[in-house]
Structures
1.
Amino acid sequence: MSDAKKINVEELLAKVPTGLLIGDTWRDASDGETFTVENPATGETIATLASATSEDAIAALDAACAVQAEWARTSSRERSEILRRAFDLINERAEEFATLMTLEMGKPIAEARGEVKYGNEFMRWFSEEAVRSYGRHGQTPEGSHRMLTVRKPVGPCLLITPWNFPLAMATRKVGPAIAAGCVMVLKPARLTPLTSQYFAQTMLDAGLPAGVLNVVSGASASAISNPIMEDDRLRKVSFTGSTPVGQQLLKKAADKVLRTSMELGGNAPFIIFEDADLDLAVEGAMGAKMRNIGEACTAANRFLVHESIAEEFAQRFAAKIKELTLGNGLDEDVTVGPLVESKARDSVAALVDEAVKEGATVLTGGAAGEGAGYFYQPTVLVDVAHNAQILKEEIFGPVAPIITFTTEEEAIKLANDTEFGLASYLFTEDYSRMFRVSDQLEYGLLGFNSGVISNAAAPFGGVKQSGMGHEGGIEGIDEYTQLQYIGIRDPYAGR
Ligand code: NAP
């Protein structure tokens, strides 16, 4: 796509609202405070935004609650058409969204374009699902009542998103919330608010009524989320981010018995059996590990390879990784961008250094990249100790540790040996093994002979400490509805 050259970064940044979206107005913070956004490829400040206070957070909730009843009464067709118009507008602005994401988050521009496509599919999918939210009708077994089950919007929602997929993590929540008839306060990640700010403006441009979506970016997440979560009017929190923050929010949600959706961290095993198609496995490994610079909750974190093919796989995988180009994601030739901040790069470097001290061998990479940005070289490690820290933590960087196994039973045991349960990957040509192993894997998602499986039409969600609830699929809208059962005295009862 050559459109990239048409984007003037300064003009684009000037289009992005820098205030807080409360009702129909982009406004300054109540105390006038601001915070800055950096380009991780250069370390330069690219924008200064209003930083929401607790007072602003409540003003955003006020604006949302003021329109909840009216919004819930709109027809599903009306909400569906707003989503569809938003889908078309995001498509028109695709190159702008992609450029913004590369600027604030660092991902290569081709991947940012991929995220626009993927993220926008949630708008299209939920525009289609909006008119298909069904209830149920039946009769009690005794014949005493007719049973009517209706779905209603859950009510005002707080949506908290992470920095790694700035558009998709917002559309995955905002799309179904609109489809269901909920009003929202969106709190984007401090490191990547620009995409959400522009997305919210795009929603207004698509005809979303003022107050339905409010955006409070800011330097202090808890100053924004705490007062909202303590307010009796809030009905739901949908959070995507790390497990420790999710745990804190769940504790807080318990005080008000809030509905919650939690999309949390992962530690994905990538299992390759001796009968796997190695070409497919290498291609899958590149996607599962290197997409988004390894900064994905679904990123392969541990490569478990049968001992008979481990060396061949490692050599072929390392050879592919050496072909990658590290640099500023705005450069069309770059295939691996910087990590999101210096802290992220340092923590990846520390995990690799520790693994090497514990006996791991570096096949390629193994050090920070050059330049002012937060670069880390794509890295493959072999001979990793089975108890190494790098296998226990979410690496969140372009580093692939490889360990070996001997039996199917051992592979399953190693794969499940984590508190996380989000994505897993399985490569084998034996389909009966696929079913046997998938039955035993404690994961919400399984990629079979595929390294990238996320799709707006599929339910995305983890088990164990990777979270609860689903985004996408026909299930995604249920997270924003509540059931009401109406028992109607049967006119023939007792006659
Ligand atoms: P994070 O530190 O947990 O932050 C996520 C969001 O929560 C940000 O908006 C952050 O705001 C906010 N936050 C932080 N502390 C908070 C608090 N005390 N109260 C309320 N909100 C708070 O996670 P991250 O580093 O942005 O994202 C990476 C993590 O997200 C990884 O663990 C990854 O696996 C997970 N993730 C999961 C999925 C999934 O679908 N399961 C998808 C993507 C990412 P600030 O930015 O202002 O701190």
Note: The longest strand covers residues 145-153.
2.
Amino acid sequence: MTKITAAITAVGKYVPEYILTNKMLEKIVETNDEWITSRTGIKERRILKGEGKGTSYMAIKAAQQLIDKKKLDPKEIDLVIVATATSDMKAASTAVYVASEIGATNAFGFDLDAACSSFLYGMSVASSYIESSRYRKILLIGADKCSSMINYEDRATCIIFGDGAGAVLFEPNTKGLGLQDEYLRSDGMGRNFLGAKAGGSKYPITKEAIDKGQQFVYQDGKTVFKNAVFNMADVTVKILEQNNLTNNDVTWLAAHQANKRIIEATAKRINLDASKVMMNIQKYGNTTSATLPLLLADYEQQLKKGDTIIFAAFGGGFTWGAIYFKWAYN
Ligand code: UT7
């Protein structure tokens, strides 16, 4: 029997129009363009404005772009997964709403939250469903309205995060293209260093919590940075070793865009030339679950059938991992 692999066959994206530049942040918190650029690589980020607009707004736009480009009948979609750390609301999956809004009336949907690794883990889940032959068309969307959980008086976080969404379609492939292998990890001690304390079931939102700003994301940047550098580089090495690959076999590194220095450290660890490292952090900042699909959308024109892409991510929780992938179209 022919082996079925899970390939990405289309990509779409959406970023909000509003641009928050480093210069604008200089007027809000004590920071400066030089510090942000040299420490993170970020020049600007997009912010979703407008009453009642949540993550689904961007996810729908990204999905619609993909559907239009691919000339896909949304009724053929079997499953919609929204990878996100900022779902629209509690106890009602964002993916379900997105599926209805894009006309995927034959699909079921659910959200997947593993902070900044949500999309990476989502690739694993979507691929497993495809490989099992249970479903044939899976829309995986990475979308986050990070601005909804950021305190714009906290310079440790507000300079980093931005809003955006990217969508990919997974379909069966019989030529061996798509997801080849994965190495996924997590460690629960990470919740002490990155996360929003209030708003979940452990500490529901109260007036006191709001007064203390506990609904916002807190980050111990230094600790997260150290763990991100070590772990993202480590899994990137592991996925290469596991598959007998060298840096010469890698066409692209698509790494979570949290900090340019973390991405460069990962590339350096496998001796990968900068020309092979996808980078768009300067434009969007850290969009959490959207960074990887936004990279694919921005680099789509340069990707060729058979290209080897190593995906890597690190995020809150902590969660991290790497995926060895073969691109399926020109
Ligand atoms: O996507 C999820 C995972 N998240 C990440 O991977 C983020 C990981 N962390 C980071 O990217 C970095 O730690 C940050 C960008 C958050 C911070 O960079 P850093 O190089 O680790 O800076 P730091 O926290 O060590 O601070 C260095 C100095 C401090 O001053 P002193 O103590 O040396 O005088 C800070 O007070 O920079 C100061 N500082 C700032 N200065 C201007 C901290 N934030 C700012 C700021 N503007 N926004």
Note: The domain at 180-326 is CATH 3.40.47.10 (Peroxisomal Thiolase; Chain A, domain 1).
